[in-house]
Amino acid sequence: MKTVLITGFEPFGGEQVNPSWEVVSRLDNAIIAGCRVVARQLPCVFGESLTVLNAAIDALSPSLVLAVGQAGGRADITVERVAINVDDARIPDNRGRQPVDEPIVAQGPAAWFSSLPIKAMVAAMREAGVPASVSQTAGTFVCNHVMYGLLHKLSARSEVKGGFVHIPYLPEQAAAHPGAPSMAAATVRQALEIAITTALQVENDIAVTGGATH
């Protein structure tokens, strides 16, 4: 059985929970589209997050990797198109590191694009009644760091597809941020299941027909 690796982050920035891990952890050992899902938590730390992620990829040899992170203030599920080769932290990470204008990979490409069928994923979520959109920026904090590092690693493994999805606050978090949008954990879980299913189906169709993903 093929494996899907899905990751979420530990809490950061003074939050008591991180919606990405709260939801992702519930998908551990789930079977989606005939594949076993394995969930791993990443530290919200520059460098260490990629060490944990890369170790999980090496150990599991997944066919699909979906990294998930919190984007407080966003109102919908946002599927990221691109990660840029820069760490530029507005706040310190969970180890107190706050890099400014530092490359993630020295001499690496300026950017890496998601290898997931991002528009098909968004369309499938919307069809199911889940607010979703394509995002053109993953920021410059640890989420972008992980997305870039993930795609850089997978560039040598063309058979493995990967990308990043940002999700809103949970309602209990938004209660402490008056006016901030939120999304229920059950809805986020539904969205991630749809995202995984769509990515696997599109990849299977590509394998059969030799077509393109976009």
UniProtKB/TrEMBL annotation:
CDD domains xref list:
Peptidase_C15
Give the reaction(s) catalysed.
Answer: Release of an N-terminal pyroglutamyl group from a polypeptide, the second amino acid generally not being Pro
Question: EC no.?
Answer: 3.4.19.3
Q: Domain of life here?
A: Bacteria
Q: Where in the cell is it found?
A: Cytoplasm
Q: Which InterPro entries match?
A: Peptidase_C15, Peptidase_C15-like, Peptidase_C15-like_sf, PGP-I_bact-type, PGPEP1_Cys_AS, PGPEP1_Glu_AS
In this protein, the active site sits at 80, 143, 166
What's one GO MF term for it?
pyroglutamyl-peptidase activity
* Function description: Removes 5-oxoproline from various penultimate amino acid residues except L-proline.
Q: Which family does it belong to?
A: Belongs to the peptidase C15 family.
This protein's assembly is summarised as: Homotetramer.
* HAMAP family, alphabetized: Pyrrolid_peptidase (MF_00417)
| Stated name of the protein | Pyrrolidone-carboxylate peptidase
User: What organism, scientifically named, is this protein from?
Assistant: Citrobacter enshiensis
Lineage here is: Bacteria, Pseudomonadati, Pseudomonadota, Gammaproteobacteria, Enterobacterales
Q: Which gene codes for it? A: pcp
